[in-house]
Specification:
- By secondary structure, this protein is α/β, with parallel strands linked by helices.
- It is about 60% helix and about 15% strand.
- A six-stranded mixed sheet has the order 1-2-6-5-4-3, sandwiched between helices. A two-stranded antiparallel ribbon has the order 7-8.
- It starts with a helix and ends with a helix.
- It is found in: Membrane.
- Its main location: membrane.
- It is a multi-pass membrane protein.
- InterPro entries: CorA_TM1_TM2 (IPR045863).
Length: about 475
């Protein structure tokens, strides 16, 4: 059972690890990098085979003795952080390379750039630590609706969960041995593939490498990723602009589609703000690396002038690296200008869509007003008809009452006598009044009680309607 479980773990590792990343499992089959060598640690529950021996072998020889000019340690924590393996890895780096990864983890927990000159065992190092990128994510399933009450407290909202993931980079240069060390504790797949392809290229012909070469390579990769994001956002803005130029948005009467357009525009605006922040941070990294490039050159000259030795860094390559950083800085500034331009376009589109929605709502209100006017006109016709009917009724009502009164048995016309005909009133005429007056009073009383009962039931309903 134990053997089968180990085989399953090996198959999982083969599926999860990219094909273009060389794993240090079989040292004899790997290419020997003269200028660049790797130690790879994948956190899948155990250390990569031979990781400790590779760290030890990379620290055993200096470049003058045939060792690597640049040492690169790549770590991948995609499958989760395992405390025992992480602590063991930190202990290995501290034991053989005198690198305290706990300090690096503390510095890389925030978006900071830190550089310093360290003296250790009589040797002077230049150390640099910064975050290549930051990834912000949130739990959508844990976000309640807008109608829910937010939980506001000192720490954070209770209905939103944010998570930050950083990609820190640690750099160290030793002017005594001319050896450079790069440690990426949470290297992305893109950077792992890029550095691996560079290592395969350098294994064929290893040129002289400047200590800051990998900084330029990684920052170029980062700015290229920013360019892809800008192109994607620009493509979406062009689609909205194309809809506006075609006039399909102006002809659209579906308010839900207008809402989707506005949501898309606001999402683009939010992504542009985040992208602007990242691009500005890349430019800040380049500026500080240019400053540390001068510090590196001064440190190199001071040490080798005192020791009367030739410098490990060629001046022409050093100036070429400076030119690369200046080009990267111009590239970052150009991307920042593109982002500002896209932000202005997005704001114009949002304003235009708001105006279109306002015009659409005004047209709907005009149509409702026109239909209301038609309804009121028809109601006015009905009211006029009722007034005419009421007028005719009032005109004939007195005559109808008189006819009804004389049609009763209380009043009669006597034509049987010898004299002229005359009216005869019954001696029971008071019976009519005895029934008519009480019935009229009873009718008015019933109407009054009904109005009072109806008013008492309507008042609580009106009060609940206007209660906030």
């Amino acid at each position: 059972m134990e053997k089968s479980s180990e085989e399953e773990l090996g198959l999982k590792l083969q599926r999860k690890i990219p094909k273009n990343v060389q794993i240090q499992e079989n040292v004899s089959q790997e290419p020997k990098y003269d200028a660049l060598q790797y130690a790879l640690f994948l956190c899948y529950g155990n250390l990569t085979p031979d990781f400790e021996s590779l760290i030890q072998s990379l620290s055993s020889k200096s470049p003058a003795d045939g060792g690597a000019h640049i040492r690169v340690v790549l770590m991948n924590l995609d499958a989760g952080i395992f405390l025992e393996d992480r602590n063991r890895t930190f202990a290995v780096l501290n034991e053989y390379w005198a690198i305290d990864m706990r300090d690096i983890s503390m510095l890389s927990s925030q978006l900071v750039y830190h550089s310093q000159t360290v003296n250790n065992a009589g040797e002077t190092y230049l150390e640099i630590c910064y975050n290549i990128s930051e990834y912000l994510s949130y739990d959508e399933d844990n976000i309640l609706s807008l109608e829910s009450s937010l939980t506001l407290n000192v720490s954070k909202p209770g209905d939103m969960r944010l998570s930050h993931e950083y990609e820190p980079l640690y750099f160290r240069y030793n002017p005594v041995t001319g050896q450079t060390t790069y440690v990426l504790p949470n290297a992305t797949l893109e950077n792992r593939s890029l550095l691996n392809s560079i290592g395969q290229y350098l294994s064929k012909s290893a040129p002289e490498m400047h200590p800051f070469t990998m900084h330029t390579v990684i920052l170029s990769q980062t700015l290229a990723a920013r360019s892809k994001e800008i192109d994607d956002l620009y493509r979406r803005l062009l689609w909205i602009e194309h809809q506006i130029y075609q006039g399909s948005i102006f002809q659209d009467t579906n308010s839900e589609r207008f809402t989707r357009y506005i949501q898309l525009s606001h999402k683009l605006s939010r992504n542009l703000i985040t992208l602007e922040h990242r691009t500005q941070r890349d430019g800040s990294h380049i500026d500080r690396l240019l400053r540390d490039l001068d510090c590196l050159w001064k440190l190199e000259n001071v040490y080798h002038s005192n020791k009367s030795k030739d410098s490990y860094i060629d001046s022409s390559i050093h100036e070429r690296i400076r030119d690369c950083f200046l080009c990267l800085k111009e590239s970052a500034l150009d991307r920042e200008r593109q982002i500002i331009n896209l932000q202005r376009k997005t704001q114009i589109f949002v304003t235009l869509l708001y105006h279109l929605i306002t015009g659409h709502d005004s047209a709907i209100n005009l149509r409702i007003a026109s239909e209301t006017a038609n309804v009121s006109h028809e109601a006015k016709k009905d009211s006029t008809s009722m007034k005419i009917i009421a007028g005719v009724t009032m005109f004939y009502l007195p005559a109808t009452f008189v006819c009804s009164l004389f049609g009763t048995n209380f009043v009669a016309l006597d034509t049987n006598g010898p004299s002229d005909p005359n009216f005869v009133v019954s001696k029971f005429w008071w019976v009519y009044l005895a029934f008519a007056i009480p019935l009229t009073g009873l009718t008015f009383c019933c109407f009054w009680f009904w109005r009072r009962w109806r008013g008492g039931h309507l008042l609580p309903v009106e009060g609940e309607k206007y209660t906030v």
